[in-house]
Amino acid sequence: MPNFSVFIAELRRRRVFRVAVFYGGIAFVIIQIIDGTFEVMGIPAWVSRLLIVLLGAGFPVAMGLAWVFDITDEGIVRTKGLATGKPGTSNRTLIAVAVLAVAFGIWGRWGGAGRNYDPSAIRSIAVLPLDNLGGDPEQVYFVEGMHEALITELAKISALRVISRTSTLGFGAAGASIPEIARALNVDAIVEGSVLVVGDRVRINAQLIDGRRDQHLWAEAYERDLRDVLALHQEVARAIAQQVRATLTPEEEVRLASARQVDPEAYQLYLKAWHFRTNESPENFQKTVDYLEQAVAIDPTLTQAHALLVWGYLLTQLYGFISIEEARTKARAAIDQAVKLDDTLPEVQVNLGLYRFYYERDWAGAEQAFRRAITLNPGYMPAHYEYGLFLGRMGRTEEALVAVQRAKEFDPLSMQGPVGLGIVSLHGRRFDQAVAYFEQALELYPDNGHIIFWLSTALADAGKYEEAVAIYEQLASIDPKAYSANIQTLIATYAQMGRRAEAQTLLDSLRLEDQDLVIDPLYMAEVYSALGKADEALDQLELAFEEGSTLMHYLKTRPLFDPLRGEPRFQALMRRLNFPE
Fold this sequence. Notes:
It contains 29 helices and 8 strands. The chain is an alpha/beta fold. Among the domains are: 2-114, no CATH class; 119-260, Rossmann fold, CATH 3.40.50.10610; 262-378, Tetratricopeptide repeat domain (Serine Threonine Protein Phosphatase 5, Tetratricopeptide repeat), CATH 1.25.40.10. Helix 15 (363-376) packs antiparallel against helix 16 (381-393) and helix 18 (416-427) packs parallel to helix 20 (449-461).
């Protein structure tokens, strides 16, 4: 102990402690500057790591110099021997001890903390919303599009389970810790990043973080011209796959290395369309179509835009903005072009399935397309979701629930999980179960007109008419256009609960008004069936069939058509629809 006390006194005399504090303070400031500015300035991550390593390596050098030399009025001089005159520790020994101490600290920070890290253990990833480094609110749609595109590319890797965008949106702002987010989304790792657009250049900064220990694993910056933005997404996805040692199949290798150039203006219009597509409302459906049509007019080779147009035309038609014939014609042209350009994209196959299902009533062809989309990309959530809804509409309830539950694994916090399970349960006539699912979805999204419509329908099918009317009437203030577009639901419910006069009055006013909306005859058939007017209902069903109604699959499962099932005209329609057994 005396020798140790002498050693401590000697450290003080030689001002080693003072130099250590000073060096540490300067190093801390430099590291803060690196963390706060290098990413914004676009400086590669390896530069940051190099500077931090140099700062660590410089510490023992500074300590050694402080021990050996002193700053006096005469300049820098070699420090005199021990003040006590007692034998002490040599300079070489002290420097060696300092070096070992620093090396042990570095090992403890970087080596020790990560010594148990096994990158191959990461098999599920969530990409948090990307930061808009430019700060321009006009670029929000672009940053959102980059987020979706990166998730889409990662989801092409079958060895990884990648969480869909909607489930990650609530974690965009600061709040929950990385381990909390990882637990909520049930993933092994988190990807954080940012997007910066300057002129015709786009930069993505990405970092991979161990979700369990909040440990930084990897970071890098990537920059390309806007024309090469698809290749940029693929480059980042491949880099992340390499970091977690995910094995790519030969097909995945090809898909992640086959990006083509895009027209920057057309691609930005596509991203604007995607922005409105993800904020579902009748008005936004039309905006989605408008931007997509502009995009393909500029760049007819933009495959994703053609594919998404099928969805846009379907929704604008279902909400009565365009006729069935117009929607079918436009959707056919869009899907034909998408398939011609690239039929290996899962989004093309999903929309091909939707087209075949709604406009061609090709049930077997629709199933084939949905299944191929899943084969092409097992991690593509919409493929599982749409396939699940298809199975439910065909009466294959158990298979449908499995498929939608699989979709929910990729998007655990979105409304699509409970809504999809509710729709499937409704088609399977599990009404109380359907109500429970829709109520669960409404808790997550309390003002969503789509959910309110389905909950009202489920309550009516369950015989809870008063509750169904109360729920449906909320739409009048929340989403007036959705209220008007689905008014037949309220009329049918009035009829079922015995308020036939009110139902008839509302029906008459609906027919007399100058309507901007086009109402599918099948909806009118539901109303007439609820009113007990079988002939009028069958007339409307036959009209719906001839006009190519996109809702003819309702005949297989909807309870409102039960009073008609013994009618020869209804049975003839069922034969013409040729539903699979």
